[in-house]
Specification:
single chain; about 300 residues; alpha/beta; Rossmann fold; four-stranded antiparallel β-sheet; 9 helices; 14 strands; globular
Length: about 300
C-alpha cells in the first residue's frame, strides 16, 4: 500500500515553476530518500505534503484519500530551518509544540520524557533553550517531531550539524521508527546516509523526478562493469587482455588488490575464468557506483542537456 501518491503535480510561484507535472509514490513502512540539488523542488514538495501550500494542478493522496489539513496531525515534520524560542524552558517549548499536534498535556509530558531519556538529554528538561548547543537543540526538535507518534514522518536534513556519534544515534532512532511501522521521507544531501538507511529514492531536478526506485536497483541500473579482486600473495598483472583496464592496483606483503574496468562485451564470469587459471583468489565483487556518483553524474548530464 502507498501512504503517499503524488500525481501530475505542478506548482508555480509567479513565473517560476517549482514543480513540473511531478509524480511519485511512497510505499508504507519504507524510508524514502528525497534527493536533489538546491532549488530542485524538494522543499516545495514537502510543503505540499504538509499542507503548507497546495498544488496548482494535480493531486496528493494520503492513505488512499485526498490529503487534507486534518491529516497533518498524523504527520511529523522536521524542517531544515530550525526554530525554537530561545528564552523558553526546553520542557515548556516541547510541551507547547506537542500540544499543537493534538496531545493532552499529560500525554505530551509522558512521551517527551520518554524521548528525552532515550536520547540522553533528560538533564536539559528545565534548562533554557538558549543554553543548548546547536546539536542539542536539534535533538529537542527531533523529539518534538516524533512525540505524537505519527505514522508518516518527514526529516529535512536531519543530520546537519551533528557530530558522527550523534548522527549515528539519530540514524538508529530513524531505523527503529521504521521497524515500528512509520513511513519516513529523508530529504538530505548526505548520500552515505541514503545508501545506509533508505529503501527507495527519488532524484528531483528542475521540478521533475529524473530517477525513482529502490536504492539497490538504482545502483545496479548505473553499473559500469567495474570489479575488484584480491589475490593471495603478490601477483604480476601487467600483461592483461585488452578487454580489461586496470583502475588501481595495491600490493602488500600478503595480497594484491586490483580494481578493473571490463568492456561491455565481457562479464564477471569472463573475468573470473581468466584469473582463476592464473592466481589464487581471496575475494571478488562488482563495484556498484555510489549514490553520490549517481547524483553528480545525473544532475551534470541533465544540466548540460538544457
Amino acid at each position: 500500500m502507498n501512504i503517499i501518491e503524488v500525481e501530475n503535480v505542478t506548482k508555480r510561484f509567479g513565473r517560476y515553476k517549482a514543480l513540473d507535472d511531478l509524480s511519485l509514490s511512497i510505499a508504507q513502512g519504507r524510508i524514502f530518500g528525497l534527493l536533489g540539488p538546491n532549488g530542485a523542488g524538494k522543499t516545495t514538495l514537502i510543503r505540499l505534503l504538509t499542507c503548507i501550500n497546495t498544488p496548482d494542478s494535480g493531486s496528493v493522496r494520503f492513505c488512499g484519500h485526498p490529503l487534507t489539513a486534518a491529516d497533518v496531525s498524523n504527520i511529523g515534520y522536521l524542517p531544515e530551518e530550525r526554530g525554537l524560542y530561545k528564552k523558553m524552558k526546553v520542557s515548556e517549548q516541547a510541551i507547547y509544540m506537542a500540544r499543537l499536534r493534538g496531545m493532552s498535556r499529560r500525554d505530551a509530558i509522558d512521551s517527551l520524557q520518554h524521548w528525552f531519556h532515550k536520547l540522553g538529554i533528560e538533564s536539559w528538561w528545565n534548562r533554557r533553550v538558549e543554553d543548548l548547543s546547536k546539536g542539542m537543540q536539534q535533538k529537542v526538535q527531533f523529539i518534538v517531531t516524533v512525540a505524537h507518534h505519527p505514522d508518516f514522518l518527514i526529516f529535512d536534513e536531519p543530520f546537519s550539524g551533528f557530530d558522527p556519534i550523534n548522527a549515528e544515534q539519530l540514524k538508529s532512532e530513524i531505523m527503529e521508527l521504521k521497524e515500528h511501522g512509520a513511513t519516513i521521507i529523508l530529504s538530505t544531501h548526505n548520500m552515505a546516509s541514503v545508501e545506509e538507511i533508505c529503501d527507495d529514492i527519488a532524484l528531483v531536478n528542475k521540478g521533475k523526478v529524473i530517477i525513482n526506485g529502490a536504492v539497490n536497483e538504482v545502483r545496479r541500473t548505473f553499473r559500469q562493469n567495474r570489479f575488484h579482486i584480491t589475490f593471495d600473495g603478490q601477483a604480476d598483472i601487467s600483461d592483461l587482455p585488452e578487454w580489461m583496464q586496470i583502475l588501481s592496483c595495491n600490493n602488500d606483503e600478503q595480497t594484491t588488490t586490483v580494481q578493473l574496468q571490463v568492456t561491455d562485451m565481457h562479464k564477471a564470469n569472463d573475468l573470473l575464468q581468466y584469473f582463476i587459471a592464473r592466481y589464487p583468489i581471496l575475494s571478488f565483487g562488482e563495484m556498484l557506483p555510489s549514490m553520490n556518483d549517481i547524483f553528480i553524474r545525473t544532475i551534470q548530464a541533465q544540466n548540460e542537456n538544457h
